DNA sequence: CCATCTTACTTGAACTCTCAATAAAATGAA
DNA sequence: TTCATTTTATTGAGAGTTCAAGTAAGATGG
């Protein structure tokens, strides 16, 4: 006894999927073109830059990024090859790796940020009213299960 | 002179990115697990099932899916291997390929649809009020550039 | 103290997507 | 006609993601 989507839901669902795809693709293209990295890597660098001492355990980082450990592991391996991130062993628990944002990684992030932010504005915020921005936060947080509103 | 995101925008942006990722991953996992296909393939079958005679030119299909021709070409190649879609030459323009949804493909789609719909409800609509559903449609359509509201 | 369970992370293979290159047919201009 | 351009679609290589399996080290408990 499937409860199919009604017309409003259909409309919303298709629009949401299309938007999600469009925005992700635009950002990926912009970052790849202008900074030579996919959006996922940008977010990794971003999270690390905000962390104390610019470092985080792999598992914490994965958690904060809503990423699988596997994906993160592969990603950090490639970021390490580029010298943007460094893995450092943990003194107290030898299973743990710390991911550390290098100066070079920080510089790359700093160089990428303005263009990325501009892209986010152009493809997203410039098309919304402040009221819609507020509504969207509540909507997304509801979907994410933040017991908020 | 970068216009950085303010706090409201930050909050919305992170929530939107997280939601987009979460929902996509949940749907991909559900479809992969229960029907052995990624979400992208499901959408291909869906579009074809809605088309007259269950067939569409590759380029039309790509357009409607907001997909690159390359991506679609690869996808249809694999759907064809499974016997779910068939490519048929066009009589009047020999550059054109029609993608045709086979009976088997239709059956697979029909079998996948209830579980998929249930997943969409659980991970999305069940967490939103009707008012939010309406708001979200407007927001997404604004981002997509549908000169609507 | 040692066997077992759990945690943290990595690895490899299979798969999908992107981008650039290619091919082939239609279009259009000289 | 003929040759350049545009349209339609495919292909292959490189890159990223996923899933399942594997490694190593800390925690548990008899």
TrEMBL record, chains A, B:
Q: Which GO terms describe its molecular function?
A: DNA binding; DNA-binding transcription factor activity
Q: Which UniProt keywords are given for this protein, alphabetically ordered?
A: DNA-binding
Against SUPFAM superfamilies, the record matches this protein to: Winged helix' DNA-binding domain
Query: By its UniProt entry, which SMART domains does this protein fall under?
Result: HTH_MARR
A Pfam family per the record: MarR_2
Q: Can you give the residue ranges of the HTH marR-type domain?
A: 1-145
Q: Name one GO biological process term.
A: response to stress
Tree of life domain = Bacteria
What name is this protein filed under?
A: DNA-binding transcriptional regulator, MarR family
- List the source organism: Streptosporangium subroseum
């Amino acid at each position: 006894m499937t409860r199919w989507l009604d017309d409003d839901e259909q409309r919303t669902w298709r629009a949401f999927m299309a938007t999600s795809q469009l925005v992700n693709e635009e950002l990926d293209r912009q970052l790849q073109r202008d900074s030579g990295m996919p959006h996922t890597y940008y977010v990794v660098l971003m999270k690390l830059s905000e962390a104390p001492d610019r470092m985080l355990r792999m598992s914490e980082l994965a958690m904060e990024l809503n990423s699988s450990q596997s994906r993160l592991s592969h990603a950090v391996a490639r970021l390490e090859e580029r010298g943007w991130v460094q893995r450092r062993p943990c003194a107290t628990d030898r299973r743990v790796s710390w991911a550390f944002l290098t100066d070079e990684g920080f510089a790359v992030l700093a160089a990428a940020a303005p263009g990325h932010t501009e892209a986010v504005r152009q493809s997203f915020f410039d098309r919304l009213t402040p009221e819609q921005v507020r509504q969207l936060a509540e909507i997304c947080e509801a979907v994410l299960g933040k017991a908020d509103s």
